[in-house]
Every structure is written in structure tokens, then in C-alpha cells.
Amino acid sequence: MKWFKSSCAALAIIGLLESAQADNLLKHYRDALEHDAQFLAARALSQAGDEESILGLAGLLPNLSLDAQSNWSQAQYETFGGSLEHRRQSRSYGVQLRQPVFRWQSWVHYQQGKQQKAFARLQLGIAAQALILRVAKAYFDVLITKEVLDVLSRLREVDAEQLAGAKKHFELGNVSITDVHEAQASLDLVSARIIVARSKAGLARHELSRITGSPVGELRGLTGGVGMVLPQPADANDWVTSAERNSLEVQAQEVLLDIARNEVRSRKAEHLPSLDLVASKSMQQNPSVGTERGTTATIGLRMSMPLYAGGGTSAAVRKAKALAAKAEYELEDAKGAAALLAREAWAGVIDGVGQVRALEAAKISAESALAANRLGYKIGVRIGRDVLEMQSQYSDTLQRLSSARYDTLLAKLRLKAAVGALSEEDLVEVNLLLDEQA
3, 250, 222, 238: which is closest to 130 by C-alpha? Predict the structure, then answer.
């Protein structure tokens, strides 16, 4: 299946990336494959599901059994001349072969076994996609919280300089005490925000470490502009249609519907006769008085026909039909949910690309406005509050831009997952964008 495969070119790229930098997105994903409890549970369930087809096939194959028995007997006879006692030990050995000839219910169970195996594989694919998204989100959260903390730390340094300048100008009589108080208030507010940001950064690192089971070092992140290319095809309806058809959740629900329909057939088959070929051979030692050994061989057909089971069989059929109808409704719901996820992910990508471009322009504008206000403050045409507000606005723009970039990358991964196409190769592409250490 697609989620288990990687092209040779992708593997070569992965090797180059890992040799260049160990602590990157792919490295943490590989660690998560061997540590994350949710994924390992899904993998164990898939391994159990692989046995379902064998269990179903067993009902169609011959059944061979061996029986052995040893008996001790004592008999006492009364005669005219007295009593006679006879003791003996008898042994019997038998082999029986039973080959189903017609068991429709066993055939249906075999079909269900193959479907349950396919369902378990789909569940593993869903877990694999979910793991990619969880690792990517946790990784991006670490980068976002770190960048927010760095921005706030720089803002605190600038506010500290602004406070020092306000105090100096106040001593010279150039500004009022209000400028000093406003600068102090801004510095205190930023210090409080840093405390919260530092806590969030620590929690983000713990979450990534929880998933991967490995410590989190310096991570590769986005340090420059990123070409936010729109996904192809460039029509949301194409992605929605693909999601309704190819989403792993939809495919899994389709398999469950097939299983439910076969369950109806299985319950109906309980009304039908069954026919088995039975062959046996047995040997008895000392089967009776005066007999040393006896051998018996038989072969024949055995038919069993259920006549009445207290209405339980009919009730089981009605129950199976109701559960099949339930599976049909759940399939329709799964298609609607897949379509909605595709639309949400598409909107996240499109809106994210537009937001990144807008925030990049806002960053340039904020830089220019901040420089102009600082110059105006020096020459006396701007007050300290103007500079503080522009510094805060510039800092907020940087934080929003950082979040928008990573959110857009995550939305692209979610869009691929919505159509059942998310794989490790998509992480390779994202990892190529993370060129520098954040």
C-alpha cells in the first residue's frame, strides 16, 4: 500500500538530510515510528488482523483429529461350580478426517476474514497518517513557541532601551514622567508574556519528546521566505471528490459495510444444510472377551439440517440487517466528514498562503513605521507611546507570520491526508524547506 512505500529518490534525499543534520523533522518521525504508543497499538492490531483471513480459511479446510482411549474392566460371573472373575485392559486408537463439502456459512466467514484483514491494514494506514500529522504539529509547535519567545525577548530588550532613554530624557527635562511610566508598563507586560511563552515552549518540547521518545535539541526551522505554492489540482471540488472516494476513513467504512453485509449472509446460512465428508479408521486392542484386536474403517457423507432454534436464527438475521443498515449510514457520514475535512484543509492552505503574503508585506510596513517613529521620537515629533505601540505591533506581526507559515505547511499535510495520500515523502518535501536551525 502507498503509505508503506517510499521511492528510491526519496530515500536518497532522506539519507542526505539525515547525514547533514540529525535532529530534523524526519529524524523525529522515524523515532516516533518506534516509540509512539498509538501507532504501535495500531500496528499490533494490524498484525492481529492479518490472521483473520487464515482463521476464515480454516473453516473450509480439512479437520484431522486423533483419539486414543484406554479402559480397564473387571467382570465377575456366577457359575454352578462357583464364581469366575475376568479382568482385562482394552485400548482404542482412531483417526478421523472431516472435509467440509458444503458449508455456506464457512465460505462467508472466509470472505469476512479477508475483509477484516483489509480493514486492519486500513486502520494502520490511518494511524500512520495521524502520526505524521501529530509529529509535524508537535515539531512546528516547538518552532513557533521558540520563535515567539525569541521575538518577545528582543522586544523586552528594545523596551528596556526605551525605558532607559525615557529616564534619561526625563532627567534632562525633555519628556514628562508619563513617558517613563508607559515605558515601564510596556516592559513589565512583555516580561509577563515571556513567562507564559517560556512555559508554552517547554510544554511543546515535552509533547514532541512524548511522541518520539527522544530528547529535543535544536530543530531545523524556517528562517527566510518560503515559496507557498498552491496545491494541485487548483480546484477545491477536485480535492473534495477525491476525499469522498479515496479517504482512508471512507475506505475503512466501505470495508465495514461489506463485512456487515456478509454477516447477513452468514446468519441466513444458518438455515441451510451442511454436508461433510467424514473418513475414519480405528483400532481396538482386546475389545471383548476372546478378541485380541479389531480394526474399523469408514467413509461417508454427513448432512446436518437445522429445523428449529426457538426463533434465534431469524432474530439474528434481522439484527444483522439492522447493523448493515447502520453501516450504510455511517459510510455516508464518513463521506461527508471526509469532504468537510478536505474543504477545511483546502481553505487552510489557500487562506494560509494569502495570510503569509499579507503578513510578509505587513512586516516590511511595520519595520518602516517603527523606524520612522523612532526617528520622530529622537527629533521630538513623536512621543514614547508611539514608539512603544509600533514596537509591539511589529512584534505581533512577527509572531503571527511565524505561526501562519507553519500552519500553512500543516494544512498542506492535512489536505493530503484528507484524500488518503499522505506519506513519508510529503515529510521529505517539508523537511527540504527547513534548511536552517531555528
Answer: 3
Domain boundaries, the chain: 2-60+123-271+316-437
Can you give the pTM of this predicted structure?
0.83
Options 3.30.70.2190, 1.20.1600.10, 1.10.260.40, 3.20.20.70; which CATH number does 2-60+123-271+316-437 get?
1.20.1600.10
Give CA–CA dist 265/102, Å, rounded.
15
Q: pLDDT tens digit string along 9-42?
A: 444 444 444 444 447 899 999 999 999 999 999 9
| 72, containing H or E segment | strand 63-79
**Amino acid type, 305:** M
Strand, helix or coil for residue 398: helix
User: Quick one: three-class SS letters along 282-329?
Assistant: EEEEEEECCEEEEEEEEEEEEEECCCCCCCHHHHHHHHHHHHHHHHHH
pLDDT digits (tens, 9 = 90+) for 320-334: 999 999 999 999 999
- Apex 408 CA angle, 202 and 433, nearest 5: 80
Within 174-235, residue ranges assigned H as helices are: 177-212
Residue 285 CB-density burial (10 A; 0-12 exposed, 13-18 middle, 19+ buried): middle
* Residue at grid coordinates 513557533: 144
Residues 221 and 438 sit within 8 Å (Cβ to Cβ): yes
